[in-house]
Specification:
With about 140 residues, the chain is an alpha+beta fold. The chain is globular and about 45 Å long. It has helices at about 15-20, 25-30, 115-120, 120-140; strands at about 1-10, 35-40, 50-55, 60-70, 75-85, 90-100, 100-110.
C-alpha cells in the first residue's frame, strides 16, 4: 500500500487555487511527470468525468484514465484510476488558512501491482518527492 500526503500554503485565495488545481487541462503545467491530458467525457469537470493522462514516473511511461468519484468545488476533488498500471486514488483538498492564503493538500494512495509492487517503498519516497515539487510549482504559478 502506498499512501502519500503532501501539503503546502499558497498565498492566493481558495477560489483561485481550487479552480486552477481542479482543472485537468492545467495538470501538465504544474505536474512535472504529467505530459498530456485528454478528456474522455465532456467538459466541465463533474462527478463521473473521465480524463486520459500520459505521465512518466520512475523512467516508465504510464497511460491511465482517472474518473472523478467526488467533487465539491472549492473544497475537495477525488479521482480514481478507471484503468491503468497502478490503481491509484488522488485527492485534492483546499482550506482557507488565513485571509487570501490557501492550504492545499495532495494525497495519493493505492495498491501497486506488477513492477510497481516490487518497488513499493521506493515508489512512496519518489511520489512524496515528486508531489512536493509539484506543489511548489503550483504555488509559484499562482503566486505570480
Amino acid at each position: 500500500m502506498v499512501d502519500v500526503r503532501t501539503e503546502i500554503s499558497i498565498d492566493c485565495p481558495i477560489e483561485i487555487v481550487a479552480h486552477y488545481a481542479a482543472d485537468p487541462d492545467h495538470a501538465p503545467e504544474w505536474y512535472d511527470n504529467i505530459k498530456a491530458v485528454e478528456w474522455v467525457t465532456e467538459k466541465p469537470l463533474q462527478l463521473g468525468s473521465k480524463m486520459a493522462f500520459i505521465a512518466f514516473f520512475l523512467g516508465r511511461k504510464l497511460e491511465y484514465v482517472y474518473e472523478v468519484i467526488e467533487y465539491v468545488p472549492g473544497k475537495k476533488l477525488v479521482m480514481r484510476t478507471a484503468n491503468g498500471p497502478f490503481p491509484m486514488e488522488t485527492t485534492y483538498t483546499w482550506n482557507t488558512e488565513n485571509v487570501g492564503v490557501t492550504r492545499m493538500t495532495l494525497r495519493n494512495n493505492g495498491v501497486p501491482a506488477g513492477f510497481s509492487k516490487m518497488v513499493t517503498p521506493f515508489t512512496a519516497l519518489m511520489m512524496k518527492k515528486a508531489n512536493k515539487k509539484d506543489l511548489l510549482k503550483i504555488k509559484q504559478i499562482l503566486e505570480q
